[in-house]
Design a protein that fits this description.
alpha/beta, 8-stranded parallel sheet, single chain, 8-stranded mixed sheet
Amino acid sequence: MKQTICKRIGKMLSCIAVLSVVLAMGMLSGCAVSDNPGKDEKSGADLVVIGKIFTSENYQMAEAFAVKDGKYVYVGDKKGAEQYIVNGKTEVIDYTGKGLVMPGCGNGHSHYMLGYALKTIGTMIGLDVTSEKLLKEILPEAVKKAKAEGATSIFGQGWRLQSLDPLPTREDLDAICSDIPIYLLDEECHKALGNTILLKKAGIIKEDGTAGKTTLRGGEIVVDANGMPTGLMKEQAQTYLRSFLDNDNLYTLDRALSNLDEISQYMASVGYTMYHGGWGNYFVNTNYYQACQQMDKEGKLHFVVGLPYEIESWMDMDEALARAVDAKKFASKRVLPRWIKLLFDGGVEAGTAIVDPLYPDGHQGIANWTEEEVTELTRKANAQGLTIHIHVMGNKGVHQVVNAFVNGGQDEMRNTLVHVRNVNDEDYKRMAAHNIYVTSGVTWHHMPTGAPEVLKTMVPAGQEDKSYPFKSFFDHNIPVTIHSDYPATSGSPDDPFGIMEIAVTGVLWSENGTPWWPEELATREQTLTAMTINCAKQMFIEDERGSIKTGKYADFLLLNQDVLTCPVMEIHATKPTATYFEGKKIFSM
């Protein structure tokens, strides 16, 4: 009996040992194994790619994959992929030693519609433009162009407050053009300048020339010593002013379609195959939504786009929510209008974020919403299948928004914080516990050497060089993506690998800077994860995209170098030699 038991135990141990070796070999190989290898051997694949492949599946690597009908049918080793090759049918790309193969990238928050619209209907001003150059050169030329084209308003963007000294007033703008509205948005999209005729349309100045509306919830209408509006509008006041432009003529459906074509070409050229828009109704209409849906139905949309409907704090919440719900009618295969965008506060460096402690001069930033309002709106939006995508930067603002998501939201809705400059320790844990997502502006990690000294006079104590966390989100198991916030990039890159280098090094290659917060720098693998599968999760498409895995759409890049091993200060030089979307090549160098 004892010998029999011993023999059985011996057999069991032998089986366990063999199984352990098999499992270990699978782990060591680092290959993502196909769910059903060889199932399409007879019919063959359309495409087989061989090389060093980063799958974005838990940092796993593979040697090859096969694509059929736009989807991966095999991911694993080279030998397995070869079974899918049929002479005369299967295209084979041997990318061995040429660079990394990886999933298509995503941008977690950007304003491509605005940026590309400005190139055609507006004027880009520039960060270093002075008041003199703006008033004597740029604006007169913009007015001339607008009137020649029969435009009903003049739209510009990109000025920096520090460069405009003295800051132009509405009277300065009136001297150049007083018969049609002028609206000039700053580089961060949080401040704007308007001329008198536009201020009158908005009721900020009465028709008799006296002061009209001088206060606005969630924003600041700047006035002079006599109580008259100067033309400078901050935060939600500038979005209110923008709503009085002739937006239907300013941004038409045809313009939206033309811009989308340009956006598609750009995204493919740098490696983006998905992006989450900053907001979709920027010009107070739904022409961009309609254009996206139309292009998708025509088979011309070569990326997936998430479209949030922005609700401003000066709007009636329930009416605006109803419009956001109605915008879901523009949904299609690659167009996802399932978010509401809110601005909770402003910017920390701009002095308008909700912070603790207070700013050096003792003031608090501008709160666009109360915590109770965000709680209520989150509850209503989530119940309607809409996720909240909220701009919040100050640590106290983050705390209040997390409270709102915890108390009013549904964890499965992946309510998201955007930008996020400072986070209290306790809030990391709550974010992780309630599946709260973050899209991080790591492009703001970089700062010229000496920046903390300058910031001491601008930001709350202790926040001079501890800001814009990134690695901490990974450490706390908080789903995090990367965004560029284009065109509000403040001179930072918009392409995936320019952003990746900053996330890994903390500096911008064109500056002689030092890392601003080295503790928050991430690994290359973490950064690639944030740009791929995490972005797909943020957009609720991780079962279809974001990684190289059997059954998913074949959205992938062939890179000109290996971003996992190249010199760290050369990551920004990485470009796709080819971009594939759903198995089809949409860009090649």
